[in-house]
């Protein structure tokens, strides 16, 4: 199962390299189902992996001039604060047992996986549907919405350990008026910083972290990014993204069903 898990890590990187996002949504399920890691710890590990893999993509986009630092600052700061608060203070105080509904027991790990399944379904839909032309509204109003969206992304990132690229990219296009390529590059920069800061929040409260395993897992993911970036010359993103979206949709349904029937 571990060999399959490392192969899946390459898939995470391939998706980031080929379509600029989506792969990080698979990190927690891969850690939970292939490596049998507790969902709560898996969110910490996911933030570490997302931070490292996103940094590889962010550096590549920076060299191409696809990172808008002003927008990254406006979007990133509220998100960073939200992520750190979630990891440092909110997550530790959430009780393990939340409530009972008949024979179904809602625990903290179960809640994490349920939220994660919903996010996977949302991310898959955003990848499957065709892009429509986006009109940018009033700049002042847009920046207000951008900050609100940033805080929302930070809360989600801090709670379930995903990068949130499927939420960040549309926000940067809609509210900041960035072209898609710059939105992807700026999104990767924000995800890098917010994810690694989230890990720092966990480290500061002495959360158990297996750095050797994480570095090995991340190495496979980064190898996938490098391969995916090379394959972009030969594979159409417009055809690949919906196909990957359907895969994430099936994975989301699988996570939802297996979590509910435990």
From TrEMBL:
Highest taxon listed in the record's lineage: Bacteria
Organism: Mucilaginibacter agri
Family membership: Belongs to the 4-toluene sulfonate uptake permease (TSUP) (TC 2.A.102) family.
One GO cellular component, as annotated: plasma membrane
Keywords on record: Cell membrane, Membrane, Transmembrane, Transmembrane helix
Protein name (database record): Probable membrane transporter protein
Cell compartment(s), UniProt: Cell membrane; Membrane
Keyword Repeat found: no
Protein's membrane topology: Multi-pass membrane protein
InterPro entries (alphabetical): TM_pro_TauE-like, TSUP/Inactive_protease-like
Primary subcellular site in the record, as a coarse category: membrane
Pfam families tied to this protein: TauE
Transmembrane domains' residue ranges: 7-34, 40-59, 71-90, 110-129, 150-177, 183-201, 213-231, 243-261
């Amino acid at each position: 199962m571990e060999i399959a898990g490392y192969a899946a890590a390459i898939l995470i990187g391939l998706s980031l390299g080929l379509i600029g996002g989506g792969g990080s949504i698979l990190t927690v399920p891969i850690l939970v189902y292939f490596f049998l890691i507790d969902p709560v710890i898996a969110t910490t590990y996911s933030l570490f992996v997302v931070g490292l893999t996103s940094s590889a993509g962010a550096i590549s986009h920076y060299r191409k001039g696809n990172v808008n630092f002003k927008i990254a600052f406006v979007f990133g700061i509220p998100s960073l604060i939200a992520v750190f608060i979630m990891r440092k203070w909110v997550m530790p105080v959430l009780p393990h047992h939340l409530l009972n509904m008949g024979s179904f027991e809602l625990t903290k790990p179960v809640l994490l996986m349920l939220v994660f399944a919903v996010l996977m379904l949302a991310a898959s839909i955003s990848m499957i549907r065709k892009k429509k032309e986006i009109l940018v509204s009033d700049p002042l109003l847009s920046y207000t919405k951008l900050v609100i969206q940033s805080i929302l992304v930070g809360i989600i990132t801090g709670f379930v350990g995903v990068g949130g690229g499927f939420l960040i990219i549309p926000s940067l296009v809609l509210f900041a008026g960035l072209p898609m390529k710059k939105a992807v590059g700026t999104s990767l920069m924000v995800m890098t910083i917010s994810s690694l800061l989230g890990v720092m929040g966990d480290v500061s409260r002495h959360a158990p972290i297996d750095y050797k395993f994480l570095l090995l897992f991340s190495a496979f993911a980064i190898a996938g990014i490098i391969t995916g970036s090379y394959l972009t010359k030969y594979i159409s993103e417009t055809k690949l993204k919906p196909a990957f979206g359907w895969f994430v949709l099936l994975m989301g349904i699988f996570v939802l069903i297996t979590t509910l029937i435990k």
